[in-house]
Amino acid sequence: MITAEESFCWTGPFDLRESALTKRFILLDRDGTLIKEQHYLSRPEQVELIPGAAAALRTLREMGWGVILITNQSGLGRGFFSRADLDHIHLRLMALLREENASLDGIYFCPHLPEEGCNCRKPLLGLVYQAVMDHGFDPKGCVVVGDKACDLEMGRRLGGMTCLVRTGYGRNYEESDPHLADYVLDSISELPVLIKNMEAT
Ligand SMILES: [Mg+2]
Ligand SMILES: [Zn+2]
Prior knowledge:
38% of the residues lie in helices and 15% in strands. The protein has helices at 4-7, 18-22, 53-62, 74-77, 83-99, 126-135, 149-157, 170-176, 191-200, and strands spanning 24-28, 65-72, 106-110, 143-146, 161-165, 183-185.
């Protein structure tokens, strides 16, 4: 017999709470996917949304989807920018989205260098586990969107649907392996239509 209290007890990343059965999430890459790729972006003024990105996020929210940013930021570990710089970059990003009535449910970043052997650098799932614990959803129901192989590999590892965008480094990855993702989009602006079609079938 499970008590009411126990039924709300969070026991692990793959446990499903009631919210997990209804709310689904997009796991979005940042650089080259939501904002324009800049080599180790380090200042808030450099943040520029991909055209149509804010409108896409707004539509996805109206469709009932949550949107979470999952981003590798090894520039932090390399000393190219500080934690304060990164916070300012994300505040600027949120402000740009807010101007267009869009927002994110969370931002999760890996600050480590590849050689540090952390468990949160994409394609590893550490950041996704963290997001699952914070928001309570089934990772297998996620749609993962990114411009690099590591984004899509992360999506495959968690059993979600994968979308490669042709912005950022996406075109290069598409040329090197056309079957890298379940779907290829010109940009994130096409995501709501893809998901609408997916939901309709
Ligand atoms: Mg990227
Ligand atoms: Zn990490």
